[in-house]
Design a protein that fits this description.
Number of helices: 13
Structural class: mainly alpha
Helix content: 55-70%
Distance between the termini: 206 Å
Radius of gyration: 57 Å
Largest sheet: 2 strands, antiparallel
Shape: elongated
């Protein structure tokens, strides 16, 4: 490095009789200055020192020194971004850990030093802090006491000494997300995605992810909606456990829930939580009624657990009976809707056939009545014709049997 510096900034001798304008200022690039050499050649008035450029031997020695330092510090100088993008997650993490060994050690030392500094400030505040904070604190109290910095409180840096870069933090968060996606039933997916966004320093994460808060009690309808959305349900003490259990059991019979195993499992788990809380609350109430609040007469933890177990067994039988009642008699399950539709269709067809038979019977009755009326009319016509023929016969017979009178001679003469 010294040879390179001397080669880039040469020095030398100049003749005493040679006069150079502004010889106390260095020559700028592209600048030409006047020189008075007294008629002699310029090369004879200036003599640069014979500095050599850096040789290849010195460059090889520098490379050897750097490699020896790397082996001594166990540094793996590998760019992870230039590696195979299809490499496994474990391989990438191993390369990151290997390449960040020295940086991780430095970061841990900084974390340790900052912890020691905070402890010194903590002890100083606890010994010499005035009874009142000397600065204005809008919206807060200025009374900061020495007792606030006693041995019950510890001041530590908010950092993870094992993570020193944003790339490492994002890689770990993405690995956690991949593991959570491989087994979603065993992980909190909301927390996994939240940590990925947090490692990327994304602002307003709640505006991107749907909030999942289980810190407030909810009504059964809201909990059923959360179960369909894939959210976790939480039961609280003091709720109307019977109402929640009945509502969730009715929701479990819905075809939408039966086709969604995750929602069905979540509802079943939530029902068990209500059964557990109800058993605990009833056991505590029974203990208070029997023994009161006298410490000498309180039951042991084993007796309390036995009472809770008995209540759980009884309430589980009640839940089973409620399921049997809701699903159908005898607990055989709800009737198949396809079978019900077929039965309804058969009933409609039977009613239609009965109506057609009734119409045909009425038609037959009408036809019989018409035939009877037609026969009666024919009988009357035949009787009428017989009466007419009988009358004609009587008239003809009278004509035949009655004698004709003799002709008379007139009395007048010739």
């Amino acid at each position: 490095m010294d040879a390179g510096t001397l080669s880039n900034l040469p020095a030398g001798f100049k003749a005493k009789g040679a006069r150079i304008a502004d010889d106390d200022k260095p020559i700028q690039p592209g600048e030409w200055r006047d020189i008075d050499a007294g008629g002699a050649e310029l090369s004879s008035s200036l003599l640069p020192l014979p500095y050599k450029e850096p040789s290849q031997t010195l460059f090889a020695l520098l490379g050897f020194t750097v490699d020896a330092g790397r082996r001594l510090a166990s540094i793996a100088d590998m760019q992870v971004g230039d590696s195979n993008q299809q490499a496994a997650v474990g391989t990438t993490l191993a390369l990151l850990e290997r390449g960040s060994m020295v940086m991780s050690a430095i970061h841990k030392r900084l974390y340790y030093a900052q912890t020691q500094e905070f402890e010194m400030l903590f002890r100083g505040f606890g010994q010499y802090l005035p009874p009142e904070y000397p600065y204005d604190v809008p919206g807060a109290s200025r009374l900061v006491k020495q007792s606030d910095f006693d041995n019950k409180v510890s001041v530590l840096p908010v950092a993870d000494p094992n993570i020193f870069s944003a790339a490492q933090r994002i890689t770990l968060a993405q690995t956690q997300l991949q593991l959570a996606q491989s087994a979603p039933n065993m992980h909190n997916m909301y927390e996994a995605y939240y940590r990925v966004y947090q490692s990327m320093n994304v602002r307003d994460i709640d505006g991107i992810l749907k909030t999942q808060t289980n810190q407030m009690p909810k009504d059964p309808a809201s909990e059923n909606i959360d179960a369909i959305d894939g959210k976790q349900l939480k039961a609280f003490a003091g709720q109307q456990h019977d109402s929640h259990i009945a509502s969730h059991l009715i929701m479990g019979l819905s075809p939408l829930v039966q086709s969604n195993p995750l929602a069905a499992v979540e509802l079943q788990k939530h029902v068990m939580e209500h059964v557990k809380l109800k058993a605990e609350e009833d056991a505590e109430a029974e203990i208070f009624r029997q023994y009161g609040s006298d410490p000498d007469r309180l039951v042991s933890d084993m007796q309390r657990e036995a009472m809770i177990s008995l209540n759980v067994a009884q309430y589980m039988m009640d839940v089973k009976a409620m399921q049997a009642t809701l699903s159908g008699e005898g607990g055989q399950g709800a009737p198949d809707p396809i079978v019900a539709l077929k039965e309804q269709e058969l009933q409609q067809r039977a009613a239609k056939d009965q109506a057609e038979i009734q119409l045909k019977q009425e038609g037959l009755k009408n036809e019989q009545m018409r035939i009877q009326e037609s026969a009666q009319a024919n009988d009357e016509r035949i009787a009428s014709q017989e009466r007419i023929a009988q009358g004609r016969f009587e008239v003809a017979r009278e004509r035949i049997t009655t004698p004709r009178p003799a002709p008379t001679t007139p009395t007048g003469g010739r």
